[in-house]
């Protein structure tokens, strides 16, 4: 790492940037981390929200663990049982008590990603944890407390969710203490070259490939692209190209990957357009849950049941897609 690159390297993790805006943001993180007990991170998918959350933890001086949880697509019981734990017999299958993530993060940092997807019930439980420092394991009538730094993130606009009535106003204002906005990669293009070099060297080491070779044509392609998937998309692109070319990144591999990603984005936009047309024909508007279900089923139909691709389009994890499918099948009268 050269002197012009800002990085924090603890336990082999680093934040790579030469961008002035990002360097100022990291300097602010270093200032607020030791004192901030609640931080909200906003930014598009793939901008590095979890890495920023980890950086907050690393700079906080807290000795406990960094524990991360993605709330996209999870139901109330899964949210509560995973975060707060449960007592033996709390529900079918709870054959013994289990500690939740909040307790595991005691003395450290709890990172909750995609909180914009939480239901009102789960939002209420999160608000209690934030305001009172208390939580209730499922099946217990005794509240517990935990000393945790809470970092939350979302790629959604929470202000719009409040206006829609799908996000609690009191929780929104409570989360508005320390707010970090992560810019998309297209707004910090000077970071593309150092990131490519970093990912290429990392991939070469991991797969024991020859020293990375990147020609000018490839650099022109990589620095001229908008990266709708941000840093995550760039990292995947470099890793695939490195492995395909045995250390040499070929322009045709990059072009093919960019074309596929553009097609994926077009599918996602067409999805929204298709549902908008369907809504125009409805005499009454569907509920938010019904709209989510409509989008979920249509995405699976268009992807031919490919859960990995459906997860990419919906912006949730593949495990969340799998869990939702299991729930749908369990509730089906034809099982």
Automatic annotation (TrEMBL):
The keyword ATP-binding applies. Keywords: ATP-binding, DNA-binding, Nucleotide-binding, Transcription, Transcription regulation. It holds the Pfam family Sigma54_activat. The keyword Transport does not apply. One of its GO terms (molecular function) is sequence-specific DNA binding. It comes from the Bacteria. Residues 15-243 form the Sigma-54 factor interaction domain. PROSITE patterns: SIGMA54_INTERACT_2, SIGMA54_INTERACT_3, SIGMA54_INTERACT_4. One of its GO terms (biological process) is regulation of DNA-templated transcription. This is Sigma-54 factor interaction domain-containing protein. It comes from Desulfosarcina ovata subsp. ovata.
């Amino acid at each position: 790492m050269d002197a012009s690159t800002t990085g924090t390297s603890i336990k082999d993790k680093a934040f790579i940037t030469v961008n002035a805006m990002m360097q100022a943001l990291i300097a602010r993180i270093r200032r607020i981390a030791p004192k901030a007990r609640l931080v909200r991170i906003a930014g598009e998918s793939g901008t590095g929200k979890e890495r920023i959350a980890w950086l907050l933890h690393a700079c906080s001086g807290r000795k406990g663990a960094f524990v991360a949880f993605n709330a996209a697509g999870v139901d109330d019981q899964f949210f509560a049982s995973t975060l707060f734990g449960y007592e033996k017999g709390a529900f079918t299958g709870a054959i013994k008590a289990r500690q939740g993530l909040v307790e595991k993060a005691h003395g450290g940092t709890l990172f909750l990603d995609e909180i914009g997807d939480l239901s009102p019930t789960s939002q209420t439980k999160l608000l209690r944890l934030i305001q009172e420092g208390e939580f209730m394991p499922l099946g217990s009538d005794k509240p517990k407390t935990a000393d945790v730094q809470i970092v939350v993130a979302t790629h959604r606009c929470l202000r719009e969710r409040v206006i829609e009535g799908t996000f609690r106003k009191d929780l929104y204002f409570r989360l508005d203490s320390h707010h970090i906005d992560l810019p998309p990669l297209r707004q910090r293009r000077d970071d593309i070259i150092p990131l490519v070099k970093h990912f290429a060297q990392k991939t070469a080491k991991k797969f024991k490939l020859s020293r990375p070779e990147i020609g000018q044509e490839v650099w022109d392609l990589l620095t001229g692209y908008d990266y709708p998937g941000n840093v995550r998309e760039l990292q995947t692109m470099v890793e695939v190209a490195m492995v395909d070319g045995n250390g040499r990144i070929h322009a045709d591999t990059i072009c093919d990957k960019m074309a596929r990603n553009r097609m994926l984005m077009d599918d996602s936009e067409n999805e929204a357009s298709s549902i908008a047309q369907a809504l125009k024909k409805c005499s009454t508007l569907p509920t938010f849950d019904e709209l989510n279900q409509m989008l979920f089923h249509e995405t699976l139909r268009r992807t031919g049941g490919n859960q990995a691709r459906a997860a990419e389009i919906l912006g949730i994890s593949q495990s969340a897609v799998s869990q939702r499918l299991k729930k749908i099948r369990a509730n089906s009268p034809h099982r």
